[in-house]
Amino acid sequence: MRYCRFQSPKGPAYGMIESMGGRDVITRLVTMPEDASSFGVSTTGDHLTALPLNEVKLLAPTVPSKIIGVGRNYRDHAKELGNEAPSELLIFLKPSSTIIAPGEAIVKPRLSQRVDYEGELGVVIGRKCRNVREDEDVKTYVRGYTCVNDVTARDLQKSDAQWTRAKGFDTFCPVGPLLSDEIDGGNVTVETHVNGESRQRGTTKDFIFSLDAIIRFISRVMTLQPGDLITTGTPAGVGPLSAGDMVEVTIPGIGTLRNPVQDEA
């Protein structure tokens, strides 16, 4: 199924997306992950008059308690930044205040002279997990997949001993447009365009660490809650953004996440 989070007359709501008459529409509400032990279809049967997807304001499709990033999960990306491919999974945290919706502006902070795009596959957790066993099916903990732009202040990343500042500015985590469980997260293409020009193109088949390995590893460090977001690494081709740019991250089966770029006022 495909899901979205959108601005309804009663406030932010989650909806199930279906195709009707050749167009995508929101047909019913689903439970909010922050209000439930699992993220799934509402048992209250809250059906809607079909809302055309292109007529609603889309919000970020999840409201995570935390965002866990995976660093250098493509060998070519590690190489382009002058780093060795990691022998053990490398993770970092982004604050939830970095999240913005499709169409909202990425703001380049005055503190940084170089802000880069990083198109990635995002994984949204569907139910609480901790210490996932080797014999467990990791996919049972996944609600779905989405597009993420792990925006990074590259100069600050290089100067700081850790990545919190470089990854943590407000607006540095665009997410969306949808959430889908209909794709194989281990075999999808991630492509980034800036002003219509292709800058990144990679496949999750080339991950150094698989999705199963990522979720098991993180669950041994911290409890993952419904709605939590994992960003799984970016392919080679990262580069700087300038005010006025339009950056797009596209994953087939999910769609295109579009965000303009502006300087900090």
From TrEMBL:
Residue stretches making up the Rv2993c-like N-terminal domain: 1-61
Pfam families recorded: FAA_hydrolase (PF01557), Rv2993c-like_N (PF10370)
Segments forming domain Fumarylacetoacetase-like C-terminal: 66-262
Domain of life: Bacteria
GO MF term list: acetylpyruvate hydrolase activity; isomerase activity; metal ion binding
InterPro entries per the UniProt record, alphabetical: Fumarylacetoacetase-like_C, Fumarylacetoacetase_C_sf, Rv2993c-like_N
UniProt KW keywords: Hydrolase, Metal-binding
One of the GO BP terms on file: carboxylic acid metabolic process
Family assignment from sequence similarity: Belongs to the FAH family.
Protein name: Fumarylacetoacetate hydrolase family protein
